[in-house]
Hints:
The chain is mainly β. The protein is 0% helix and 49% strand. The chain has no helices and 11 strands. Strands 2, 4, 5, 6, 9, 10 and 11 form a 7-stranded mixed β-sheet that branches. Strand 4 and strand 5 form a beta hairpin. It is globular.
Amino acid sequence: QVQLVESGGGLVQAGGSLRLSCAASGRTFSTYTMGWFRQAPGKEREFVATISWSGDSTYVSDSVKGRFTISRDNAKNTVYLQMDSLKPEDTARYYCAMQRGRWGRPERRAAAEYDHWGQGTQVTVSS
């Protein structure tokens, strides 16, 4: 049974930083592309970043490009999202997700491409 557990969210002032972590279990983590998504109240869940199973390829949304960095440590079965220069519009619940099928392509950004999700961690950025 796959489990994804996010941590690291919280309340931060605009311009600050947070590092989210997602610990995975139940699958061979190193063979799955991982993603981060977020959802603000009243809005659709949106893509934030993805990273290939090897860690060699990453994609981030235009709204966070240059501010957020996704990385992974396959030895620790963990994926990270480093968030710098946070803005109030980054306020949302952040979810990590595991892509459907091994050796997946990180350019696949649709939520439907991901079949396991964590419970999410709340990020609130005050102005």
